Amino acid sequence: MNLSENFLRLKEKVLIKRPVLQEILHKRGATPIHQYVNDYVDVNMNPPIFKRQNEILSVIHEVCRDRFGARMADSVTTQLEKYYFVSTADHAGPIVHPFFVNSNLLTALTLKEHSDPVLQNVIVLACANISADNSSFPRGLFFHTVKNDELQTHRLPFFSANMRPPAVYTLPPYGEKELQNIQEIIQTKHAKGEIDGRVRDMLRSMMTDIYSSDDVLKCSSYTEQVSRTNAQLWQKFFGAGSVKMPNLIYLELEDIVVKLLTKYHLNDDTVINHILFDPRYEPFINDYFDGIFGSFSRESATGTYLFWALPKGARYNQQLWRKGNYLVTKDESYKVEMTPEAVGEAIRSKELIPSLLLSFMTVSFYYGLKCLGGFNQVNYLTLMKNAYIKMNVDLGNYRSIEVCARAQTKEICDGLTLAFLGYDGGRVALASGLDMALYGDKDSWEKIVSLSKQMTLEDAINPLMPEIYRISYDEKEWEKGLLSITEKDINQLTGLDRKVKPCVDIH
Question: Long-range contact list for 381-384, CB < 8 A, 24+ apart?
Answer without folding.
Answer: 381/294, 381/409, 382/20, 382/409, 382/410, 383/20, 383/292, 383/293, 384/289, 384/292, 384/294, 384/295, 384/357, 384/360
